[in-house]
Design brief:
- This protein has 2 domains: 135 residues, no CATH class; 98 residues, no CATH class.
- The protein is 12% helix and 46% strand.
- The chain contains 4 helices and 17 strands.
- The strands form 5 sheets. The protein has a 6-stranded antiparallel sheet, with no helix packed on it. Strands 4-5-8-9 form a 4-stranded antiparallel sheet, sandwiched between helices. Strands 1-3-2 form a 3-stranded mixed sheet, covered by helices on one side.
- Strand 14 and strand 15 form a beta hairpin.
- The radius of gyration is 22 Å and the shape is globular.
Length: 262
């Protein structure tokens, strides 16, 4: 069992504000037993708001960097099978049933980046124990060697100069270049907006939703993205790309229960 006081001490080592939520961020047994973290703003200032989940969850600060104001947080959820009572409308009475909560072990990089608070769930297969290792794990392997002067970062996005062949390809698609638009398809978080933006390599197909029966659009395959001009974000300094740059995202885990915040 993890005491919240121990979590507070770990956050304090990096100078990070933290508070315990009074209830889970969701409904049902799964939500009650699952760890959640979000950024709250009591009195207008960012503070990490945590629901530890089940009493037998283990929540531990593995490393704290006071200069960067960042920590690596490890969360181990034991899961198990639990009995709950609910009303069965067919039988018209309370019945008891089993609910299975799956075990999970996750790591997060939490803290401040430039102007505001952030949190990122680290790659699931990475056994990370330090802030420095967390940074390295988020570096996209398709980029030049970490530390290269060619690579520019803004939040979760990396920008690297387009190759001559890529510039020719971009020129052939110049009629569909978007202006002042959001980078990427993910609509969560605050937008990173580029003066000029081009996404290639995806196709859109119409499929019938199995539940609603409605027709919806579905993208196939990840896009290859390019940006030029000013790239803006509310929490980061503006970067200016005089030439076309290829855009790559970090390796952050955005799967189920990963409450990504930027």
């Amino acid at each position: 069992m993890t005491k919240f006081e121990d979590i507070e001490k770990g956050f304090a080592r990096a100078g990070l504000p933290v508070m315990k939520r009074r209830s889970s961020m969701g409904f049902g047994l799964q939500a009650q037993r699952t760890f959640f973290c979000e950024i709250a703003r009591p009195k207008g200032k960012p503070c990490f708001s945590i629901w530890p989940g089940s009493d037998d969850n283990r929540v531990q600060v593995l490393d704290a960097d006071k200069d960067l104001r960042q920590i690596v947080l490890m969360v181990q959820e034991n899961g198990g099978t639990f009995k709950i009572k609910e009303y069965d409308w067919k039988l018209r009475k309370q019945v008891e049933r089993d609910v299975k909560v799956f075990p999970a072990k996750r790591r997060f990089l939490i803290g401040f980046d430039e102007r505001d608070a952030f949190m990122a769930q680290l790659p699931a297969d990475a056994r990370i124990t330090t802030v420095d290792a967390a940074h390295r794990s988020l570096y996209n392997p398709s980029l030049p060697k970490k530390g290269s002067a060619k690579v520019i970062r803004q939040g979760e996005w990396f920008f690297v100069p387009a190759t001559p062949d890529e510039l020719k390809l971009i020129d052939s698609y110049k009629m569909v270049i978007k202006k002042k638009t959001r980078i990427g398809e993910d609509r969560r978080g605050k937008p990173h907006t580029a003066d000029e933006y081009l996404a290639l390599g995806t196709s859109i197909r119409r499929v019938v939703d199995k539940i609603s029966g409605r027709i919806r659009e579905e993208r196939t395959g990840p896009a290859t993205m390019y940006a030029r001009g000013a790239v803006r974000h509310a929490d980061h300094a503006v970067i200016r790309l005089a030439k076309w740059h290829k855009v790559l995202r970090n390796t952050e885990d955005r799967s189920v229960n990963a409450r990504w915040i930027d």
